[in-house]
Amino acid sequence: MTFTDDGYAAVDWVARYLDRVGGLPVLAQVAPGELSARLAESAPEQGEPFANVLRDLDELIVPALTNWQHPRFFAYFAVTASEPGILAELLAAAMNPVALHWRASPASTELELRTVDWVRRLLGLPDGWHGHIEDTASTSTLAALIVARHVTGRNVVVCSEHAHSSVEKAARMLDLELRKVEADGDQRMHGDVPLDDVAAVVATVGTTSFASVDPVRELADRTHAAGAWLHVDAAYAGSAWICEEERWSQDGVELADSLVVNPHKWLLVPADCSLLWTSRPDEFRQAFSLVPEYLRTPEDVYALSEYGPALGRRFRSLKLWAVLRCYGAEGLREIQREHMRLARLFAEWVDIDPDWELVVPPRFSLVVFRRNGSDEENERILERANRSGEIFLSHTKLNGRHVMRLAIGNAHTTEADVRRAWEVLNG
Ligand SMILES: Cc1ncc(COP(=O)(O)O)c(C=O)c1O
After folding, report:
1. What is the atom index within ligand 1 of the atom nearest the CA of 140?
2. What is the per-residue pLDDT across 262-303, written as a single tens digit (0 to 9) for each?
3. Distances in whole angstroms, Cα of residue 300 to Cα of each of 102, 112, 295, 313, 319
4. Atom 13 (ligand 1) nearest CA
5. What is the pTM of this model?
6. CA–CA separation, 229 vs 287, rounded Å?
7. Given the CA of residue 208, which atom of ligand 1 is nearest to it?
8. Is the CB of residue 65 less than 8 Å from the CB of residue 28?
9. What DSSP state is assigned to residue 61?
10. From ligand 1's centre to the CA of 240, what distance in Å?
11. Ligand 1 geometric centre to CA of 259 (Å)
12. Whose CA is nearest to atom 15 of ligand 1?
């Protein structure tokens, strides 16, 4: 077989997978260790044909997959690896540029700056902000907290009790003290916390559990008055700012020192692609720049590696560029608006059914709800529904009570899929 034959076979495999994924179980129907038991203990001594790898995808890997591309995947934050993004990943791997600095990959360095700036414009963020791509929001937030500590010389981070665990993890890795602030009845962080010794406040727009929106403007004023750094985590909901009607949730974000938004969550870009902007790029560069002799070049130009932890940076902008070009802003808005419509529709069904209750109002494309009854009953219903393979939802807790989350984020999810979820939960 030639590379071309294998390549066509791989693309055929992808096309078939995307076609049939809606008929596969959403949640993997395997027990822990089941795949490991079927995998060879060691790598082969002699090379095999690529066709063997494709065969084993079907026989070994797919049965052990939880299918994130399934239109009835409603857990965590549902995502989509869209077709242009998938193909761009293949192309990026073919060129495999490693952007240590501009000379090592002028194309990926400049495309990254431009595509991230395209997104900045689409989201309505301030002119002049500097943006680059990290792998995940966890890394973006870690980077922001590194800069905050560098700038302030302080060792305390403040966030809401509903902030994502990546904030706590970053604080732990950096040996920073974390102060979690109680949220109000709308799951928003209280603004009136003492901040005298604080390095950074992390405000969330679109919390993981409830998609609630912290009062960013109020927090920004208080944070800056205390000489601290404001990082905004809009990993999920920030993408919705492409829709004018969702910009209410951006209030105050223009005052942030740094901001993270993940196109791999709700802009149809395959994982991983996390955008990190800052209004204080010089301070980012001071915190991260370290250029050893072997990386010096004659050009005095850009090295995006001077704005974050990684040196070897892969060509992530290609998939972002491909998705933005092939869908266009209107195409992306249309999909997000449909997700939000479906979330509101599901919330209505919950709201009018006396056996169920909405736990918080639907926000963006997330519905949080529970069955009237005990926690155990709710856990049983969710586990039964997930085990069925027909739908996959996740849970969280509010005031100690078990609640279910239905998150819509797959480009192929239809009203029929959402209705099926409701039927399975009621089954
Ligand atoms: C609000 C929020 N921030 C951060 C993250 C972490 O994202 P990542 O997996 O890109 O590190 C998540 C994940 O769902 C999230 O919901």
Report:
1. 11
2. 999 999 999 999 999 999 999 999 999 999 999 999 987 889
3. 9, 18, 12, 19, 28
4. 208
5. 0.96
6. 14
7. 16
8. yes
9. I
10. 15
11. 13
12. 208
